[in-house]
Amino acid sequence: MSGHSKWHNIQGRKNAQDAKRGKIFQKISHDLYVAAKAGGADPSANASLRLVMDKAKAANMPKDNVQRALDKATGAGDVKFEEATYEGYAPGGIAVLVETSTDNINRTVSNVRNSFNHHGGSLGTSGSVSFQFDRRGHFVIDRQSHPDITEDQVMEDAIEAGAEDVQTSDDTFEIFSQPADFAAVEGALTDKGYDLAESEITMIPQNPVEVPEADQEKFEKLIDELEDNDDVLAVYTTAD
Fold it and tell me: Which of 67, 91, 106, 149 fits a 20 to 30 Å CA distance from 51?
């Protein structure tokens, strides 16, 4: 029994680590796609893509995964990918946006709808929840990487770079910009020597809400299933 228990514990830890790594790869794949779609798949001519590829390398992301994200963005290999965004509600009334890139729209919408149905959610119509989000450029600076930088200095540099807002916590500086200013802000911050822990265009909920405790498990399973879908680029929610 002890041997079985030990194996069970080891396998459980491995599964948890694999799941965590899978989510990291999914996030990087999304960022690769967005960067390549906006500025091309040549990292020497695309600073945003260079930054994401450095993240992929640091995370030991397989080259096949990287290439697949770039191929989706550029339409390489004679496979046409179509972008689609789905909107719906998770258990507890939490709004959910699902961004996808797919070579089979029927398969994707069916799988997304099934995920909502499996876990007590409901797929809505276009525009049913998107009004609850704002698209913004989002940059994160780890304060441990810049221990001598003050909040006033970050604020000054961010505004000078074209950002709209800076939010400070004990661990990070978070900087927000309009999507159109993303590349300019990213370039200016990088030129000033900031190490950006995160750099992306994302959807920010206007009024985050707590997930009711009774719905927490179903909510998490829904989001996990959506994020595990190979066609899904990103999942955004109004959950706090």
Answer: 149
